[in-house]
Design brief:
Elements: E1 4-22, E2 28-48, E3 53-55, H1 68-76, E4 85-91, H2 102-117, H3 124-132, H4 138-143, E5 147-151, E6 155-158, E7 165-170, H5 177-182, H6 207-214, H7 216-226, E8 231-233, E9 240-244, H8 247-254, E10 262-269, H9 273-285
Parallel strand pairs: 3-4
Antiparallel strand pairs: 1-2, 2-4, 2-5, 2-10, 5-6, 7-9, 7-10, 8-9
Bound molecules: 4-diphosphocytidyl-2-C-methyl-D-erythritol 2-phosphate and adenosine-5'-diphosphate.
4-diphosphocytidyl-2-C-methyl-D-erythritol 2-phosphate (SUD) binds at residues 14, 26-28, 30, 99, 101, 135-137, 152-153, 177-178, 181, 235-236.
Function: Catalyzes the phosphorylation of the position 2 hydroxy group of 4-diphosphocytidyl-2C-methyl-D-erythritol.
GO molecular function, one term: 4-(cytidine 5'-diphospho)-2-C-methyl-D-erythritol kinase activity
Protein name: 4-diphosphocytidyl-2-C-methyl-D-erythritol kinase
């Protein structure tokens, strides 16, 4: 009963992000190419027999009831038919609110792990559907393959973008997703492409126009990074990824960054590290 299982909860990048239109409910139609990073929060889960969900490590600035880890666990609670509980701890390394999808990733890791640990036997499609109500990026982390996504990000076609090294830099600003989507400056009519036209070189992140206009520090950092290598914003920002030909190149560019810029170097991967670890968890559970 007291075994602790540990799973990675990775970041994602939007290698491009096109806004194709606005739906009557105000949400935006998007086309995006998702890839995972081999850079993750670490979530540890210990089964208990007290029928309770316990978060052992609160996250600064996130109330327990709002924490996507707790919300994901509570969503599965009514579906179990035993007295098992769970004790959850997280080692948070992913910057929050930077477009790296850490909260959605945490939620997906919990859905995937509890499906095994609580023996729920739900298919991935069901977990992805449940997860969508927690965040638009939860389904991609539940499915676990790099993908071209449409709709609000829930219709997924597997893709295989190059698994290159990235430098990810976080400007010192906080940008709300809602603010970006409500901006009059957001381009909203990028022509739809087909899943056969995924070349990232000729694509863009439409949200970059808004963020670089309203946050000069992001514009400045992006301009600096573009001098070294192809660079783009992920999600609604403000993190910027720089595509590098090697880990060494990424580290060399990182060394040039101003001291106030948080950054990390990671490899793009087309299978989520959570899913590789889940196979081991399943074997250990027998
Ligand atoms: C655009 C992406 C790309 O990955 O950005 P990041 O959050 O990763 O930066 C995500 O799909 C974001 O998903 P998520 O973070 O779950 O967004 P939500 O909380 O649902 O949305 C916050 C607000 O943004 C607006 N919104 C969001 C998604 C969308 N397709 N159209 C919208 O107009 C809505 O006003 C919504 O109230
Ligand atoms: N477990 C969690 N990890 C990160 N953020 C969380 C979590 N639970 C709730 N949140 C909230 O979700 C917001 C968005 O976080 P995150 O997913 O990291 O960024 P983004 O949506 O920009 O990729 C955070 O600012 C935080 O308030």
């Amino acid at each position: 009963m007291n075994t602790t299982y540990t799973l990675p909860s990775p970041a994602k990048l939007n290698l491009f992000l096109h806004v194709n239109g606005r739906r009557p409910d105000g949400y935006h139609e998007l086309q995006t190419l998702f890839q995972f990073l081999d850079y993750s929060d670490t979530i540890s889960l210990t089964l208990t027999d007290d029928n309770k969900i316990t978060l052992a490590t609160p996250i600064d600035g996130v109330a327990e009831a709002d924490n996507l880890i707790v919300r994901a666990a509570k969503m599965l609670e009514p579906l179990k038919s035993n007295n098992l509980g769970i004790n959850i701890a997280i080692n948070k390394v992913l910057p929050m609110g930077g477009g790296l999808g850490g909260g959605s990733s945490n939620a997906a890791t919990i859905l995937l792990a509890l499906n095994e640990l609580w023996q729920l036997k739900l298919p991935l499609e069901k977990l992805a559907e449940l997860g969508l109500s927690l965040g638009a990026d939860v389904p991609i982390f539940v499915r676990g393959f790099a993908a071209f996504a449409e709709g609000v990000g829930e219709q997924l076609v597997p893709a295989e973008p190059a698994e290159c090294w990235y430098l990810v830099s976080k400007p010192e600003v906080h940008i709300s997703t809602q603010e970006v989507f409500q901006s009059d400056d957001l381009p909203r009519n990028t022509k739809k492409i087909s899943a056969f036209e995924l070349n990232t070189d000729h694509r863009q992140n439409d949200c970059e126009v808004v963020v670089t206009k309203h946050y000069p520090e992001v514009a400045k950092l992006l301009a600096t990074l573009l001098e070294y290598a192809p660079s783009r914003m992920t999600g609604t920002g403000a993190c910027i990824f720089t595509a590098c030909t090697s880990e060494q190149e990424a580290c060399d560019i990182q060394a040039q960054l101003p001291n106030n810029i948080e950054s990390f170097v990671a490899k793009g991967v087309n299978q989520s590290p959570t899913h590789s670890a889940l196979e081991t968890l399943r074997k250990n559970l027998g």
